[in-house]
């Protein structure tokens, strides 16, 4: 008799004495089956699939005896071996050993229905096996390394016991991983990219400034006040232009208190005459004076800022007049030079 497991979730028991190519018994594991092993009694079968290892009683009609789900990723292989120490009561009993893509090996006592041992490896594990005398355990990983463990025998010293576990690199004998191979899709997150692999890079998260976060929440006045406090004219003008597009700039100006209005007037006094900002800021200055004239008259601090703003505008006008005079002097000279 033999037992098989398949990716269609089924586990089937076959008897070569039955004609017609019919199965003797069939059970459903619930996930694609990766490994199937007879237990030493002959009536129990253990199956691995998904993140669970299940034990079935085929003599009892295919009843599931227990389901062990201590792995966090797909269980890739199971085997049966005798483990433990010889000088203890429960030593040298058969255990079910399972390995998975989470990098763990679990030792399961199916007599007591509990996990008795666990070991972590640095790579996803693909297979596990025991020597006939259960003295050597071999585990294969997805990165092409075999982890071999040897049982410590009586008379061995500490140094020999430390040498009883080692790993063998088999990189030279590895086949090139291709998308047509099953193991290509089970390499795990710890596998490093090779030459020719297509890398999908995770986009870097953009850190938003405080005023951008407030704009996303439609808290317009708070966004304007926040950007006025950082004293960056490009950001302030950008926020003002966004508020103009949303038709909320004048509403924000109307709701500013005296302290916040002082910040706005200070900014207008400093940058309203800058040529690249004057197109927006001069018009805004006129609107601010019209809308908040009463508040400005009732506050000496705001009056002082208005006087400073007036001086800045007058100075800019004086500079423009001087430039026009220079232009009037230079233009005839350039025309005469052009004729020559």
TrEMBL record:
One of its GO terms (biological process) is positive regulation of transcription by RNA polymerase I. GO terms for cellular component: nucleolus. The keyword Transmembrane does not apply. It comes from the Eukaryota. It is found in: Nucleus, Nucleolus. Residues 192-333 form the U3 small nucleolar RNA-associated protein 15 C-terminal domain. Keywords: Nucleus, Repeat, rRNA processing, WD repeat. WD repeats lie at residues 1-17. Signal peptide: none annotated. InterPro entries: U3_snoRNA-assocProt_15_C, WD40/YVTN_repeat-like_dom_sf, WD40_repeat_CS, WD40_repeat_dom_sf, WD40_rpt. The keyword rRNA processing applies. This is U3 small nucleolar RNA-associated protein 15 C-terminal domain-containing protein. It comes from Quercus lobata (Valley oak).
């Amino acid at each position: 008799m033999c037992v098989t497991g398949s990716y269609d979730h089924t586990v089937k028991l076959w008897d070569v004495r039955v004609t017609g190519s019919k199965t003797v018994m069939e059970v459903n594991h619930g996930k694609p089956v990766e490994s199937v092993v007879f237990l030493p009694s002959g009536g129990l079968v253990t199956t691995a699939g998904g993140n669970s290892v299940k034990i079935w009683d085929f003599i009892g009609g295919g009843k599931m005896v227990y389901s062990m789900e201590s792995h966090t990723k797909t269980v890739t292989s199971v085997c049966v071996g005798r483990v433990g120490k010889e000088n203890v009561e429960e030593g040298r009993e058969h255990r079910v050993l399972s390995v998975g893509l989470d990098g763990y090996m679990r030792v399961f006592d199916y007599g007591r229905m509990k996990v008795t041992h666990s070991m972590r490896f640095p790579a996803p594990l693909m297979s596990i096996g025991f020597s006939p005398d259960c003295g050597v355990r071999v585990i294969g990983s997805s990165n092409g390394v075999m982890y071999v463990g040897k049982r410590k025998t009586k008379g061995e010293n500490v140094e020999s016991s430390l040498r009883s576990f080692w790993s063998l690199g088999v990189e030279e004998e590895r086949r090139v991983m291709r998308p047509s191979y099953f193991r290509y899709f089970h390499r795990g997150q710890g596998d490093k990219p090779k030459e020719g692999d297509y890398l999908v890079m995770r986009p870097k998260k953009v850190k938003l400034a405080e005023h951008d976060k407030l704009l996303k929440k439609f808290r317009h006045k708070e966004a304007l006040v926040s950007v006025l406090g950082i004293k960056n004219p490009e950001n302030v003008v950008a926020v003002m232009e966004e508020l103009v597009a949303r038709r909320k700039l004048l509403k924000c100006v109307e709701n500013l208190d005296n302290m916040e209005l002082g910040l706005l007037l200070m900014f207008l006094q400093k940058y309203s005459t800058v040529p690249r900002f004057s197109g927006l800021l001069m018009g805004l200055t006129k609107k601010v004076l019209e809308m908040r004239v009463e508040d400005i008259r009732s506050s000496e601090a705001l009056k002082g800022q208005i006087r400073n703003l007036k001086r800045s505008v007058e100075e800019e006008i004086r500079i423009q007049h001087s430039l026009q005079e220079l232009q009037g002097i230079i233009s005839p000279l350039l025309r005469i030079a052009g004729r020559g």
